[in-house]
Fold this protein.
Amino acid sequence: MSLIFRVETLAEIDSTNDALKARAMLGAEEGIVLRADVQTAGKGRRGRFWVSEAGNLYTSLLLRPTKTPAEAATLGFVMAIALGRLLRAVLNVPVEHKWPNDVLVDGAKISGILLESGGITGGKVDWLVLGIGVNLRHHPAETLYPTTDLLASGGPPLTPDQALDLLLAEFRPLYAAWVAGGFAALRADWLAHCRGLGDPIMARLERGEVSGRFEDIDADGTLLLRMDDGALKRIAAGDIFLVARPAA
């Protein structure tokens, strides 16, 4: 049976992710989608503050798949595929996936995806909260990466509700495929639009930086980095940056 989403909309909240996490711990059923016009304490990966002005899409989904923590961690890739499909349908510029779960429009970041989970029963997570922020009408000026928004990229003036409806329509069948076959079932879709695959990159980790060639991603979403000495390094978390190739 296909997952049924139940959308709830609020004018303002501190964090849609935090609100759904609290409800998840109280036993709320999966399928709740919480959207807010404004967040006062939005957050991104690694605890970064997420600017949340009115006009953009800020939403979180409560899900309860029967997955191990490692399997559950790949759901961000699935949402990136869904968002990428939506954006390619309405834009005439390149839309790419950037490891681990960003989506780039013409090389600039347009979204953020934050996955949080809790509880372990029989080796499986009890719940997942998938948070998504998409720049529809404005974007922050000073960030770690270049940023953009849908309007600035030549896209249509979608409202947050319109964008959410389109995103859920793209996500639903992808989520069903992920539940049935894991990220391995969708890995080729993600790689087909991967930013930097085969290119020199620098990966910024919690403890230092490493450089090499972005060789692949594994079935569990791990980035495979080919070092200069030929060794293959597996990277499970970090920020990556493209490195300019030396002039010929």
The helical segments are 16-25, 69-72, 75-90, 160-181, 187-191. The longest strand covers residues 111-121.
